[in-house]
Amino acid sequence: MKKLIIGTVTAAILATAGVAADFTLKFSHVVSDNTPKGKAARFFEKRLEELSKGRIDVQVYPSSQLYKDNAVLKALRLNSVQMAAPSFSKFGKIVPQLALFDLPFLFKDINHLHRVQDGEVGEKLKDLVRKKGIVALSFWDNHFKQLSSSKKALIKPEDASGQKFRIMSSKVLEAQFHAVGANPQMMPFSEVYSGLQQGVIDGQENTNSNIFTKKFYEVQKYLTVSNHGYLGYLVVMSKKFWKSLPEDLQKNVIQAMNEATQKERQYADELNTQQFNEIKAYAQKTGKLEIINLSSEQRQAWADKVSTIYPEFYDKKKIGKELIEKTLATK
Length: 331
Ligand code: LMR
Fold this sequence. Notes:
By secondary structure, the protein is an alpha/beta fold. Helix content is about 45%, strand content about 20%. It has helices spanning about 1-15, 35-50, 70-75, 110-120, 120-130, 170-180, 190-195, 210-215, 240-245, 245-285, 295-305, 320-330, and strands spanning about 25-30, 55-60, 85, 135-150, 165, 185, 205, 220-225, 230-240, 290-295. Strands 1, 2, 3, 4, 5, 6, 7, 8, 9 and 10 form a ten-stranded mixed sheet that branches. Strand 5, helix 6 and strand 6 (about 185) form a beta-alpha-beta unit. Helix 2 runs antiparallel to helix 10 (about 245-285).
């Protein structure tokens, strides 16, 4: 505690004295500050500045202020930005195998998912990223995704037929929507609200936290609590930046990241619940949004339909049968 206070005080003194830090670390992401990733990025910023006693100045850029979606990975490889936490879909061109996490109905629950991330499968995926010259730090959660539409309530899989859904840049998500006869359209996160508002797309899938903080619910008529797929992130760092840090600062980065990851899982759980309650309150107050809770039979009908896409990704260059089977078998 004492150390922590001294660290904070030192950082504050250095900041007020206008003393430049030895290193500047820009962390770019696309969601709001008030999301699991946004809050954890701020926690990491504060903790690393404390631990490094102000030698690393962390600057967080939320809401696509610096880079949109996958553009950040290109920038990271050039060390134009030092940290990012893109969702797994956005690694498609570099490590397509991360789309494992996009497969619908793959995880029994969040604990199963964490065991996969913390175990052999997670390590294997991080190694694939490392082989591409990117420092893979931690997996961060958002939560399970829900479906929404302005056109028709999504109760049976057939209800999605012919509707245009925004997807992230993921072959798995493309196949998922094709499996129900819908038209998937890849679009950056920052363009989803206007796409829905202007009717360029009819619907979308995202977590309650993203649906709430980006106000997608205001431009949709139906929200189905489907929990059909998972949205999460891999926190990555520029290798050039990492190598430029002396060993003690590398240790500080690891410690701040471990602490931020613990917090992140907690924020993900709390915020998705809180923000769903806000959406429910809006629906009740305005009558402009219908929230649909699926029965277990109805949910199973979606699972049966979309899980048929798994074999399309058995090729190792796509995801690989072994990774999918290991995930399903993780206890
Ligand atoms: C999306 O594009 O929907 C998400 O990846 C946004 C995010 O980072 O949560």
